[in-house]
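Hey everyone, long-time lurker, first post.

I ran two proteins through the pipeline my lab uses and got sequence/structure pairs for each. Pasting them in order. The first:
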Amino acid sequence: MNQAAGFTIIELMIAGILFLLCSLALFELLDQTYQMTREAMVRVTLNSEARNLFHTLADGGKANTEWVPGYHGHQRDPWSHELTITDDHRWKLQNAVGGDATLLGRSYPDAFDLDCQGADTPLESCTSTGDSHTIAGYVDELSPQSVRSVGNKTIEVSFTVMEPEQVFITMEKKLPRRDYSETFWTVFTLGTNKKE
């Protein structure tokens, strides 16, 4: 009696379905891994930019050829509350002696134009639909203030940093803001180490 060697159509269908299910599970695992990696990279960028800004606020930095002082060791605000962001989302500050200095944390290498989709969408600095922003830096909002100042000896600073690449992706995918930006806050105590 001759028996034909090989698989039946039912066996091939079952093998195909099992292969498809395993492929789908593997694809889902890879997609989740990619998403987690992307979120981790965004957090690294946001924390790096925040750390850079905190460091410059505290200790100062060099802009072009001019040294700009930080808050540490000063009896008064060395910037006279003139810390702002530029139109292209980099940050600048007004020196205590009146010189205007732009300090760049990092410039985003592939600057792009962003059209706002409404107030605060996708950036906090968007005021209405149709506003246009050039994104060349990492700072969205920056607000030094001394509203809660204790005897004019503290400066409260809050700022929002963003990941420009994710902001660009957001224009198409409508990601929630927490996926591409984060707000940081601190208070600096003005010291008495230096005479001013």
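...and the second, right after it:
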Amino acid sequence: MEAAAGSNPHIGAAARLGRFGLSGRSYRFLEHTSDAYVAASGRNLEEAFASAALAMSDIMTDPETVRPLESVAVEVVADDLESLLYRWLERLLVIFEVNGMIFSKYNVEIRGRCGRYELKANAEGERFDPAIHPSEVAIKAVTYHGMGITCGDGSCEVRVLFDI
């Protein structure tokens, strides 16, 4: 689903009401021959984007072992929702690769302004420690392949494929 920035009913009300912190799991892994394909959902785009981020953490380690000890601010902008989802997840992956931070809780706010979408979030977690966080699968990249965003009737779902 894509709408002009500022007119999407799934982001306006949720952003005005506040941020959403996700500690539960609202995603499922879909069948794919060689990569990790995820469908993440929520009552709105913010929750669905947070669910997608938690699913990404789950691919790399058990998110239940990740304590929310540090908070990292993340901001991305894009011209469409798919690019916003891509940039959000890519940014989190870069933070993991460069700073060694893994996250388990996300407070996400999405707004549409002047023909662009803006995502502001706080990701909470800690430095990755193999003694605490079991290594699962390394993610090489977030991809646009198979990406989709659908919203309606009080829920949103995002689909994203991770190259592993």
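Reply from user beta_strand_b:
Welcome! Quick read of the second one: The longest strand covers residues 101-113. The CA atoms of residues 27 and 40 lie 4 Å apart.
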